Amino acid sequence: QETTLRLHHFLPAVSNVHRFFLQPWAQKVQSESGGKLRIQIFPAMQLGGAPPQLFDQARDGVADIIWTLPGNTPGRFPRIEVFELPFVAHKKAIVNCKAVQEFAGKHLREEFKEVHPLCVWAHGEGLIHARKEVRTMDDLRGLKLRFPSRLNGEALRALGAAPVGMPVPQVPEAVSQGVIDGAVVPWEVVPSLRLHEMLKFHTEVPGSPTLYTTTFILAMNKAKYEGLPDDARKVLDANSGMVAAEMAAKPWDEQGPVVEQMAKRRGNQVTVITEEEKARWVRATQPVVEQWQAGTRERGFDGSALLAEARALVAKHGQGFS
Amino acid sequence: MAEGHSRPRGWTDRLGGVLALAGGAVLLGVALLTCWSVVQRWLTSRPVPGDFELVSLGSGVAVLGFLAWGTARRASIVVDTFTGWLPRRAAGALDAFWMLVWAAAAALLAERLFQGARETLRSGTTTMVLGFPTWWAVGFGALAFAAVALAALAWVPRLGRGEG
Amino acid sequence: MPPEFATAGIGFAALLLLIALRAPVGLAMLLVGAGGYLWIVDAGVLLNYLKTTPYHLFANYTLSVIPLFILMGALAERGGLARDLFDAANALFGRRPGGMAMGVIGASACFGAVCGSSVATTATIGRAALPELKRFGYDPGLATGTVAVGGTLGILIPPSVILVVYAISTEQNIAKLFMAALVPGLLATLFYVLTIAVLTRLRPALAPPGGGVDATERRRVLLNVIPVLLIAVVVIGGIYGGVFTPTESAAIGCVSTLTVGLARRTLNGADVRAALFATAETTAMIFVILLGAEVFNAFLALSQAPDLLALWISEQDFPPYGVLALLLFAYIVLGAVMDELAMILLTLPVFFPVVTALDFGLASAEETAIWFGVLVLVVVGIGLTAPPIGLNVFVVSSLARDVPIARTYRGVLPFLATDLLRLALLVTFPALSLWLVRALT
Ligand code: NA
Ligand code: NA
C-alpha cells in the first residue's frame, strides 16, 4: 500500500533548497519506491508553528519529515555547533555536507536520538555582504551586520563588527532602511533577500577553512520510520546519509556561482581578503573557539576532541577541492 | 468586541487585570527598549545586543498576559446578525455555551503549554544572542491560558442568567 | 469533485455555521481547524502540535508591531491626539455639507499614516468622532459607515500590517510595497471624500450642517494638532528616511505619544493604565483570531485543497487578466466571510506563484509582485467592511451600541461601490501603483 509522508520546512516554495534539493530528493524517493512512498512537501511553515518548533514537530509526529537548522534552537544541539565555529568549514558545500554527515554518524546520535536523522549537512562558504568595501578588520569596525547563527555572531563581534540578531524576513527591509549595513550569508541566499540589489560589496575569505557555515538536518519521525514496510524503509535508507548529503550540496555549489555572476554583472565588487589578513581574522576569532571549548566541558563533553575530528573530516573530504 | 461592560468583579477578573497590567508594563518596556536601541545605534553604531529577541520575547509575554483580561471583558468578535430574532435568554444560553467551550479550549491549551514548558526546560533551549532560557515564557503561557479558562468559567453562569 | 475540496468545503461550511450560531470568530476557527486536523491526522498529533504553538505564534518579532501600534493608538486616544486630529479636520471642513464626515476620513488618513492597523484606526478615530457626529445629528448609518471605511485607511495608507505580512510571505521588499501603496491609499481617501460629497448632495438630510468653528477656535485647534503631526513626520520620515523599521517606528510612536501626552498633561497615570487595559482588550481579541487562524490554516494546508486549486487554475490556460479577475473575486468572496489576516496567510502560498508566473506586460516579476500586493491590500480593505463579517464594522458597532449592525452595513454600501471602482482602476493602470517605486529606485 502507499504511505504518504509530510515534509515540512520554513522556506517558501521558490527557495533554492526547496527547488534544487528537497523536491528532487522527494521525487527520487517516490520513483525508487515504485509508488509505495509519496512525499508531500509543505513549504513556508504551512502546517503551522514557527521554525524553532520544526525539530519537535518531527519528534512528535506533527510532521513526518522536517528540514531545519539546529541553530534555530540555540543551546539544544551543542555538539553540531563545532562546524559553525569560525574557520572550521570548507569553501565547498559538498565537502562540508560529507564531513558533517560522517561526523553525525559518530557523534550526533545522542543529540538527535529523538528523531531518525535522514541527513545532516552544512552549506559552503558564507560571505560578508556590506554597504562598504571590507578589506581588513578595520573596515569591519562598527559595521552592523546581521549574523546567521550564535557562534558566527560571536566571531563577528571578535572581528570588531556590531553583530545584529534578527529574523531572516526582516533583513531586506533592515538593509534598505539602513538599520543594518549588511548581512553574512552564502551566495545562494542573496537573491531571495535581494541583497545584491541593495549592497554593492561582497567580501570572501581566500581558500579553506572559510569564515563560517551553518548546519542543517533533515529528520524523520522515529515511529513513522520504524513503522514503514521493509521495502519502503530500504528506499529511504538508500536515499539517506551520504547519498542525501551529496544531493544537499547542490543548491550552494551550483547556485552560488550563478548568483556571484549575477552580482558581478550588476557591477558589484567581490573582494577576496589577503592571506595575511585572513591570518589576523583567525587569530582574532580564536577566543570564540576557546570559549566554546570551555563551555563544552561544562556541558559534559570534550569539545576539543570534537573540534579536532571536525577539522580532520573537513580536510579528508576536502582533498582535491581548492 | 465588547467594551463598556460592567466593572470587573470577582477574583478571576482581578487576576486578569493583574496579568494585563503586567503585560502592559512589559509592552511599554519593549517600546522603551526599542527606542533606546535606536538611539544607541545612532550615537555609537551599536544597538542594544539582542534587542530583536527581547522584543519578540517581551511582546509574546505581553500578549499572553492580555488574554485573560480580554476574556474577562468578553473582547471577542461575535456575529449576531443571524440570531438577532432570538429571545434574550436563548441568546444568553448560546453565549454561555460558547463561553464554556472557550473555557475548555483554554484549559486544554494551558495543559499543553505546561507540557511544552517542561520540554523546553529539558531541551535547554535559549535565545540566540543573550542565551536566555525560554521555558519560563512558555510556562507563563500556561498560566495565562489557565487564567483565561477561569475568567471564561466565571462568565458562564452570568451569561446563562441573561446578564452581560 | 476531489475529496480534498469536499474536506475543505465542509470545513468552511462548519466555520460559517458556528459563527452564525454566535460562536466567537477566533474560537470557531480554532474548533473547526482542530476538528479538521483530527479528521485528517489524529488526536495525538494535534495535541503535540498545540504544545508550544501559542507561545511561538505570539512571541514573533513581526507580529510585535500589532500590540505596539494598538498601544500607540490607545495612548493617542487617551491623550486626546486622535481628538485633536478630528477637531482640526473638522475646523477645516466642518461647515460644508457632509464636512464632518469628510473630516473623519481626513483624520483617519492622517492617523493611518502613523498606524498600521485598521482596527486600531477605526477604534481610535471612532471614539473621538462618533459622539460628535451624533451630536450634530448625522445619520447613524452614514456616521458609522464613514468611521468603518475610514478605518481601512489605517492599512491602505502605509505603514500597514497587512503589507508587512504580504512582504514576508512573498519575500518582497517592505519599503517598496509601502511606496507602491501610497498613491492608491491617497486615491482611496479621495474616493471616500467624493462619495460623502455625492451622498450628502443627493440627500442633505443625512448630514445637517454645523460643526464649523470661529477663527480663534480654529487657530487653537490647528495649533493643537501640531504634536500629532510631528509624531507622524517622525514616524513616517523615519521609515522612508531609513532610520527605523516598522516595529521601531511603532515603538517610537508609542514613546513619543506618551511623552507628548505627559508633557501636555493630557495623560496621567490613570490614563496610561486605562490605555494599557484598552490595549490588552483589543490585542487579546486579535491574537485569539490569529491563534484560530493558525490552526484553521494548518487544517487547510493538510487538506491539500489550496494546492490543488492552484494547479487547477494553472492548467486551465486562462488569459492572465482572467486569472487575476478570478483570484480577486475569490478574495472578495473570502474577505466577506473571513478574517483578513487569516485570508492572506492562507491564500498567498497558493495564489502568489500563480500570479507571478503570468505575463501582465510589466518590467519584471518583482513589479508584478508589488502590484499584486497593492491589489490584495485593496481587496483586504473591502473585506474589512463587507458583510457579513467585516472586522471594522464590528469595531464600530461595539463603539456605537445604539446603532444596529445592519444599519452600519447599509451605510458602508455606497463606499463599497467606489471601492470596486478603485480596484478596477488599479487593475487597469498598474502604473498608479508602480510609478512611485520606479521613480524612487
Ligand atoms: Na497605515
Ligand atoms: Na468581510
Automatic annotation (TrEMBL), chain B:
Entry superkingdom: Bacteria
**What Pfam families does the annotation carry?**
DctQ
Q: Which residues cross the membrane?
A: 15-39, 54-72, 93-114, 134-156
Where in or outside the cell is it found? Cell inner membrane; Cell membrane
Keyword terms, alphabetized: Cell inner membrane, Cell membrane, Membrane, Transmembrane, Transmembrane helix, Transport
The organism encoding this protein is: Craurococcus roseus
| The name this protein goes by in its record | TRAP transporter small permease protein
Which protein family is it in? Belongs to the TRAP transporter small permease family.
From TrEMBL, chain C:
Domain TRAP C4-dicarboxylate transport system permease DctM subunit, by residue range, is 12-432
What membrane topology is annotated for this entry? Multi-pass membrane protein
Q: Name one Pfam family in it.
A: DctM
Superkingdom per UniProt: Bacteria
Q: Which InterPro entries match?
A: DctM, TRAP_DctM
Report keywords, A-Z. Cell inner membrane, Cell membrane, Membrane, Transmembrane, Transmembrane helix, Transport
Q: Where does it live in the cell?
A: Cell inner membrane
Q: Does the keyword Metal-binding apply?
A: no
Which residue ranges traverse the bilayer? Answer: 32-50, 57-76, 100-130, 142-168, 174-200, 221-243, 274-300, 320-337, 344-363, 369-400, 412-437
Function statement? Part of the tripartite ATP-independent periplasmic (TRAP) transport system.
How would you summarize the oligomeric state and partners of this protein?
The complex comprises the extracytoplasmic solute receptor protein and the two transmembrane proteins.
Write out the similarity annotation. Belongs to the TRAP transporter large permease family.
* Name under which the protein is recorded: TRAP transporter large permease protein
